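Students often ask why inverse folding is considered easier than folding. One informal answer: many sequences map to the same fold, so there is more than one right answer. In these notes we will look at a single instance of the problem. The structure comes first.
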């Protein structure tokens, strides 16, 4: 089953949006298989955002993502990588469609509420970066 990494960023946590965001993924039909309320260290932030190293916003990105607690999650289900990007909306919240998380709650790119993996490769990398295999649960077939 496909898995993806989703994280409520410090602005989303401070605005009490964890429940709303979890609810949107649950209502769509996805399963939460891992969750961690944590503060990201500077080395972890730099590794997570390595592809943006050298860009003008990199230092601000690292200081923002380490500025307060985040809620890191792994979600599972059919086409969850692509569909979660649609649930989340465009990176720049002013371009994100209303009805998406960023479209409903964000205004600026550097405080865009939530992160979601953008490909199979980044989902695998980000899940392994934030979670040990034994921190991910499996569901019983019949509940
Ligand atoms: P995210 O999906 O977490 O992935 C990389 C992040 O970099 C992105 O969300 C934005 O928060 C941030 N970002 C991308 N482009 C810019 C930009 N031009 N200025 C500031 N932050 C940016």
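Output (designed amino acids):
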């Amino acid at each position: 089953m496909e898995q993806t990494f989703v994280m409520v960023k410090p602005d989303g946590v401070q605005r009490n949006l964890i429940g709303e965001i979890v609810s949107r993924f649950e209502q769509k039909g996805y399963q939460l298989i891992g969750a961690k309320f944590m503060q990201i260290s500077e080395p972890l932030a730099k590794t997570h955002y390595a592809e943006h190293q050298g860009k003008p916003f990199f230092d601000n990105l690292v200081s923002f993502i380490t500025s307060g607690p985040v809620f890191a999650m792994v979600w599972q289900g059919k086409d969850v990588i692509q569909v979660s990007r649609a649930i989340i909306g465009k990176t720049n919240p002013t371009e994100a469609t209303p009805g998406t998380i960023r479209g409903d709650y964000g205004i600026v790119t550097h405080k865009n509420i939530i992160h979601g993996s953008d490909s199979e490769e980044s989902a695998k990398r980000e899940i392994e970066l934030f979670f040990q295999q034994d921190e991910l649960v499996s569901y019983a077939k019949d509940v």
